[in-house]
Design goal:
The complex is a heterodimer of chains A (194) and B (158).
Chain A: H1 2-26, H2 33-50, H3 53-60, H4 62-71, H5 75-113, H6 118-145, H7 151-171, H8 178-186
Helix pairs in contact in A: 2-5, 2-7, 5-6, 5-7, 6-7
Chain B: H1 7-19, H2 28-37, H3 49-54, H4 57-77, H5 80-94, H6 98-108, H7 121-144
Helix pairs in contact in B: 1-4, 2-4, 5-7, 6-7
Classes of the chains: A mainly alpha (194), B mainly alpha (158).
């Protein structure tokens, strides 16, 4: 009797798992346009607003600090360090937020449209984990050592973020049909109105 | 402002703007403040009478917007030393007493309304932060000098 109950429970359990899996595949296909648009927005913000090399160099460049210390040390030096720390923390916070947006997209939706190979998915998962850990480590280091105490972590974070952006670009490539691209190239590109 | 400007007209208008009006403004900060002043606060549209007559209002608007963005991007890429130099040059070009200028800029932060549309908030915060430090550096230099010509005008209301 106990054996029969056990088999019944296992059978019900398997059915529940099957039902959950079936629902998981079917549900998100419809009405997921918003997620694609948000992922696209996150990707653009990362590529154009947060990860350009010259911006990162500007934020973490020691040359500015050397200049301030030579020009007017003391209170102004402290003001500069405070300001640069604030900007660098803001940068980490923004990168982390956009990375999380992209991660949500990859977890829930990208596989529905783009066939990712298992090694690619594993690499992507590792990169996302590395990025979130690097963001956390960077925040701790910036708070503890100031804006110039975490150069190596900044480099790790930017290279992993670059890889994730490249993978996301492929997943979202279908949003850039050739016709739209040529139309974009023919326009001025500078929005004049708010 | 209904029809979009043709790309070639916009390029020609921007070229004209760079060669004439902006030619004397060598510093990005100076160009940024000037170009921001051609933008209507209520509509966000840029207007330049001469340029609009020569091309069209739409082309002039897009050309001004493009040059505005260009000036801002140059400022984002500038080192703190360059920003201090630019601010000093701009201060001298205004012919306002240096102390008054610094007090007004520290209090009113007029550069905050000079940001072009579509700029990421991190870039603008970096520029604001650099300008804040640059103003402090200029102020310390002024304090180090004797002050024979300090103005007696009232401070701006905050």
């Amino acid at each position: 009797m106990i054996g029969l109950l056990l088999y019944l429970l296992v059978g019900i359990g398997l059915l529940v798992i099957l039902w959950v899996l079936a629902r998981r595949e079917g549900a998100p296909v419809e009405g997921c346009g918003r997620q694609f648009v948000e992922a696209r927005q996150a990707l653009r913000t990362l590529q154009l607003g947060l990860l350009p090399e010259n911006l990162i160099e500007r934020i973490f460049d020691r040359e500015d600090f050397r200049y301030v210390m030579a020009a007017s040390p003391g209170e102004i030096g402290e003001l500069f360090l405070q300001e640069r720390k604030r900007i660098s923390l803001m940068w980490v916070r923004r990168v982390r937020c956009e990375i999380r947006n992209l991660m949500q997209f990859h977890l829930g939706y990208s596989r529905l449209h783009v066939k990712l190979s298992l090694p690619t998915e594993i690499r992507l998962a590792l990169d996302f984990t590395l990025l979130l850990l690097a963001c956390r480590a960077l925040r701790i280091l910036l708070n503890a050592r100031g804006p110039y105490g975490a150069g190596a972590v900044v480099r790790i974070l930017t290279s992993a973020a670059g890889r994730v952006c490249a993978a996301s670009e492929k997943s979202l490539a279908f949003l850039n049909p050739p016709a739209l691209e040529s139309f974009r190239h023919n326009s001025a590109g500078d929005g004049a109105a708010i | 402002m209904s029809a979009p400007a043709k790309h070639m007209d916009v390029l020609a208008a921007a070229d004209d703007l760079r060669r004439r009006t902006l030619a004397e403004m060598t510093q990005p900060l100076e160009r940024l403040i000037y170009l921001a002043s051609t933008r209507d606060y209520n509509t966000g549209l840029y207007y330049h009478h001469g340029l609009a007559l020569r091309f069209s209002e739409e082309a002039a608007c897009e050309a001004l917007a493009g040059c505005h963005r260009e000036a801002f991007e140059e400022l984002v890429a500038a080192s703190l030393e360059e920003i201090v130099h630019e601010l000093q040059t701009y201060l001298e070009s205004t012919r306002v007493a240096p102390n008054d200028f610094i007090v007004a800029w520290q209090g009113l932060e007029p550069y905050r309304v000079a940001v072009p549309v579509g700029i990421d908030s991190l870039s603008s915060e970096l520029v604001f932060s650099n300008l804040k430090v640059a103003l402090a550096i200029l102020e310390s230099r002024l304090d180090a000098r004797p002050k024979p010509g300090a103005s007696r005008r009232p401070l701006p209301v905050q």
